[in-house]
Amino acid sequence: MASCSRERIIIPKESQCQDNTDYLFQDNYISPGVQLGSASFAPDGSSLASSRSTTAGLLLRNAHGQQRMTVANHGFLDSTEVYHPALNGTRIGEVVERWLALDTGLVKLDPSINFRNDDYFEASSPKRLMRSDELQLGEWFSCDGMSTGLVFLQYEGSRLMSPPRPADVRIEFSEFIEESILYSFGPSGAAVSDGLCGAPFLQDDSELRGVAGFFHRVSDHYCFAAVLDDVIAAGWSLA
Fold first, then answer.
1. Which of 1, 104, 142, 178 could disulfide-pair with 99, CB 3.0 to 4.6 Å?
2. Rounded Cα distance, 208 and 176, in Å
3. What is the DSSP track for 40-52?
4. Given pLDDT bands bounded at 50, 70 and 90, which one contains residue 202?
């Protein structure tokens, strides 16, 4: 199924701000690319300094039929509750599992929340998850985040490195991971920024539409994301 081309109500480039539209209220469902917010209180009830904003990923399903939405784990380190579009919006679920090396959290959505993978704004709708050995040098990908709009990425190779971490967060790790290196071109919104974290990037081909990873971080025009081999090996696929 091709993308339904959901239109953003707020375009980052034109508004000079993030797209904090409440798409759940507007359309009764959320989808890849919408804004997410964390709670302002930790599980023990203590107050947190601030709520982080990131971008929604995809709805995955495992061999047992469980469905989970992916998020950027570093956006929810101090709390487990997930809101859309921000803390003052609707609680949509709770982080129930964390893949620390991949900087990915799995969210169990609340029963009333509908999520659609097939409606990814200006990017194509995802078709499947990709292994690292399927990536081709020079291949084009795209992703669409609440802080940038549509961004085009070109795959330039991979490297082994320590798991990605935001500058103000320290998390121990036990092994190096394989990470894709991509060069970004022409976001339709503002410059590529950290608010894009969690957004899936997929082949910019209307027939293939494989998902190669989830946006983690950026350095100048270079973007980085862990490969999905371990996710696929664990039995997860698109819901």
1. 104
2. 29
3. SB-TTSPBPS---
4. very high
